[in-house]
């Protein structure tokens, strides 16, 4: 440490975000933009092979399913090979999968190639989260997570707009551009990511944190339940059920559905950076509690809304709730793992909980809609979030060791 560093206040040094994290954030933006490009054309491309709507939907679900089943392996690979190698390997796998999907000549080729991309997606998602845990200063974990989430939000908002425009030039073109974006992200990481000067796997002073150790922490258990509820509501119900309800309830259902999904993302983007800073200053629990209560209250009443403006307004409020809780939940998992231990399996289990909710939420909601109606489906989803939010009030939260008073 230089004399200048010694002269700087400890808090200021702890607040500095390492350059390696900015590399990860830039790579996340490339990935999110590319994913947004293919999202609008993926179902239509599947339908171009003369298959049913159900078959086209399976292409979307297969990617998420392979992410879920491969998550434990991805976590183990992070512990054995190191985050940087697994991250780059995952990017390359998804790049190749995306390119082959764009080149597919029939439905079954497309299904297989797209599903295999879920393996690579798990690898770079889990390893990126593990790198954020390792490299983020404990006093800035919430802020770092919010920056990383903002990169994905920007990509998820701008990507579909660009993808819709490119789709008019041919449904295969977005896949080629996405593959190129993934390769560009791989090159950025390979050249600029130094992994914070960390030692190679196998030379760490402390062994990787195991799931059995982490599950003894009440805050990690709370994070798992929160991830499941968030996946069920914010990623599953929102994407699968909201468009169907809008199509039935409103005269311009397709347009309202698109506007509501975009407004949900805008609501999240409006607060995620502020939420990251608040999670570091006032603590994780208040943001998680308020976030789930706001999300649950807004989603729970959607099935009773017959006014388009109110429907869009509630979508914005739901996005705000999600934006409040996401950085805090990620920071809780980071606090459990700490900077000195690898936590691939712990992080992958957290991701599996969220993916599980994302997959099960739309299926359960669809059954409820068919038998009881949309109001019951939205009500159950809102109640799930409210229960998690209320349960979090009683969860004891251990601060990161480096933030504990001396």
Task: Tell me what you see in this structure.
The structure is a single chain. The protein is globular. The protein has 2 domains: 17-192, MFS general substrate transporter like domains (Growth Hormone, Chain: A, Up-down Bundle); 211-399, MFS general substrate transporter like domains (Growth Hormone, Chain: A, Up-down Bundle), CATH 1.20.1250.20. The chain is 79% helix and 0% strand. α6 (83-103) packs antiparallel against α7. The protein has helices at residues 3-7, 10-15, 19-38, 42-47, 53-81, 83-103, 107-135, 141-167, 173-192, 211-214, 218-240, 242-249, 253-281, 284-300, 308-337, 344-371, 374-392. Residues 1-14, 196-204 and 401-406 have low confidence and may be disordered. The protein contains 17 helices and no strands. With 406 residues, the protein is mainly α.
Describe what is shown at a glance:
This protein is mainly alpha-helical and 406 residues long. It contains 17 helices and no strands.
Provide the descriptors you would attach to this structure in a database record.
disordered N terminus; Growth Hormone, Chain: A; 17 helices; mainly alpha; 79% helix; single chain; 0% strand; globular; 406 residues
């Amino acid at each position: 440490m230089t004399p200048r560093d010694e002269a700087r206040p400890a808090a200021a040094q702890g607040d500095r975000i390492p350059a390696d994290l900015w590399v990860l954030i830039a790579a996340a933006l490339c990935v999110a933009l590319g994913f947004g490009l293919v999202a609008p054309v993926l179902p239509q491309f599947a339908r171009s092979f003369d298959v049913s709507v159900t078959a086209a939907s399976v292409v979307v679900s297969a990617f998420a399913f392979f992410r879920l089943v491969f998550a434990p392996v991805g976590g183990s690979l992070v512990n054995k090979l190191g985050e940087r190698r697994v991250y780059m390997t995952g990017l390359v796998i998804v790049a190749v999968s995306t390119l082959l999907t764009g080149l597919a000549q029939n439905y079954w080729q497309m299904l297989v190639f797209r599903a295999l991309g879920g393996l690579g997606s798990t690898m770079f998602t889990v390893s990126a989260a593990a790198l954020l845990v390792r490299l983020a200063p404990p006093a800035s974990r919430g802020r770092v997570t919010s920056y990383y989430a903002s990169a994905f939000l920007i990509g998820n908002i701008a990507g579909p707009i660009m993808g819709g425009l490119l789709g008019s030039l041919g449904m295969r073109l977005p896949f080629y551009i996405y593959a190129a974006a993934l390769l560009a992200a791989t090159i950025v990481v390979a050249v600029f990511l130094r992994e914070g000067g960390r030692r190679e796997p196998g030379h760490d002073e402390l062994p990787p944190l195991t799931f059995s150790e982490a599950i003894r922490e009440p805050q990690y258990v709370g994070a798992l339940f929160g991830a499941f509820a968030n996946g069920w509501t914010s990623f599953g119900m929102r994407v699968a059920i909201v468009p169907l309800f809008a199509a039935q309830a409103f005269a311009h259902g397709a347009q309202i559905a698109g506007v509501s999904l975009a407004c949900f993302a805008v609501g999240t983007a409006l607060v995620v950076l502020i939420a990251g800073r608040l999670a570091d200053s006032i603590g994780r629990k208040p943001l998680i509690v308020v976030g789930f209560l706001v999300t649950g209250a807004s989603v729970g009443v959607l099935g009773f809304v017959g006014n388009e403006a109110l429907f869009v307004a509630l979508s914005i409020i739901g996005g705000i709730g999600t934006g409040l809780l996401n950085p805090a939940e990620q920071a809780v998992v980071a606090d459990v793992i700490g900077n000195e231990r690898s936590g691939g399996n712990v992080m992958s289990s957290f991701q599996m909980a969220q993916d599980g909710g994302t997959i099960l939420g739309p299926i359960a909601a669809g059954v409820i809609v068919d038998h009881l109606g949309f109001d019951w489906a939205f009500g159950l989803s809102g109640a799930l979030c409210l229960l998690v939010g209320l349960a979090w009030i009683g969860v004891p939260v251990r601060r990161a060791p480096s933030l504990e008073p001396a």
